[in-house]
Amino acid sequence: MSEKPKLLPIGISDFKMLREQNRYYVDKTLFIKDIIEASAQVLLLPRPRRFGKTLNLSMLRYFFEHGQENQDFLFQNLAIASHDVFKKHSEQYPVIYLTFKDLKALKWEDCREGIYQVIAWETMRHLENMKNPSLSPPVKEQLEAIINLKATPSAYEMSLRLLSEVLCRHYNQKVVILIDEYDTPLHAGYSKGYYEDIISFMRNFLSGGLKDNTHLFKGVLTGILRVAKESVFSGLNNLDVYTILDENFNNAFGFTQKETAGLLNYFNMSHRMAEAESWYNGYLFGSEVIYNPWSILNFANRNNEKPAPYWINTADTSLIDKLATFGGKEIREEIGILLEGRSIIKPVHDAIVMRDLEKHPDILWSFLLFSGYLKTVRHLEDEMYELQIPNYEVKLIYRNLIRSWFAGKIEQNRVEDMLSALENKNVNFFEQMLKKIVMQVMSYHDLGNSPEKVYHALVLGILVWMSYKYEIRSNRESGHGRYDIMMKPKDKDKTGIIIEFKKVDKEKNESHEKAMEAALKQIEEKNYASELQAAGIRDILKLAVVFQGKELWVRKG
């Protein structure tokens, strides 16, 4: 009789609970060895949300922490158990473990109270575990004030230093400090208006515990972003930061190709590897290809269901919406390029000053990269990288973002009617609806010096609604030139569509009729339909969209 498969650890981020329940575990324990052997005393490891940061820090805690119960069984049959560091470092250190992942308050006062409570709980946990601690009256009084939430703000700012000193002296052993999701309250502060308050607190708090602390063995922090040194980590000369751009720790978070294949094979899902790759693959950490672990676990847990956007369904994209809106039409055009499956070239800043996000739109791309919404394709030179959407799941976020941009200006049923007309080759009705939309959403200021780009971006954004039926492509080579927009149906029996944009040349006294003829002639002479024909699509609709200011005309070839 075959053994019943292990349960998946959906939503379990406590390492001890996962191991005691004998859940399926992708072995990341060599991460412990890498932390111990790292030359830096303090490490910051930013990764996207739900990529295993909390579980890894929990694992470090159970490995390092000197406690009353032997925890060796948690690491039985795991990779770390066969290394020398296991005997030398296992359960040898007092550990301060703090998680800020739930600190998303609307007001600074509530955020501050939440931080104080997290510090109080950890302080109380240690005092309860220490047998007859030898504390001077002032130190004991200070610790009790912290636990009872009656200490001064400066006392909480220095609490990490104080607690590490007390533990080091009591156990005669240096301390390990683990801080999970250190930047969650920073994101909340930025979006809710108390950024300067939280930055000031975190700068003093982290510096107090991690800078020149003679009682410290190792410090490990996780988060999504590396917030720039001048904001939080000023003066921390013992800090090393390893982002997704670095080779170090590149397979510690998320699932590698081999780990994903092993998991799917264990649950008899090897035949669905191609689906997993299309939906959840594509991240590049250093040179390691990484799958989204949250989505893979949920995909395997629902092994008889179609792939779904598990990761993005847990996301709060309000900050992305806000940042993208500040960027204006240039940002929208570039998101349109990304949606087509193409890449953009941008500078990437691995240290972000969040208050600069609205002032410098280019920082948006760094934010999207480190948050998991883009991937690097290749490093060009210096800070320049080629960036792309990693997979289909993330592509849905951008598609919904464009939909939300139009939602405030265009009635959804109007867009649906227009697209239905296009799909059914009702060109006259398509033209009428497109004219109405242009009058609604476009201003002469938008048209500027490159109206073709504006019309192109507008129509491309609307066509995103059809991406579940068509591959939407633009500015790609086909035949003897580059078409403007192509809609390649996923069902070969459906109609393929080619759209060419052309501005009426007033300086040459060109009429819109002549312009339409020229656009349709270009489609034929450049043989833009060759890509569709090569894919076996027989029914092809060729459209010329000609414009003069906010006036436009559509004709089929």
Automatic annotation (TrEMBL):
InterPro entries, alphabetized: AAA-ATPase-like_dom, P-loop_NTPase, PDDEXK_9
Domain of life of the native organism: Bacteria
Coiled-coil regions listed in the entry: none
Domain AAA-ATPase-like as annotated: residue spans: 9-233
Species of the source: Desulfonema limicola
Protein name as annotated: AAA ATPase-like domain-containing protein, nuclease domain-containing
Listed Pfam families: AAA-ATPase_like, PDDEXK_9
Leader sequence residues: none
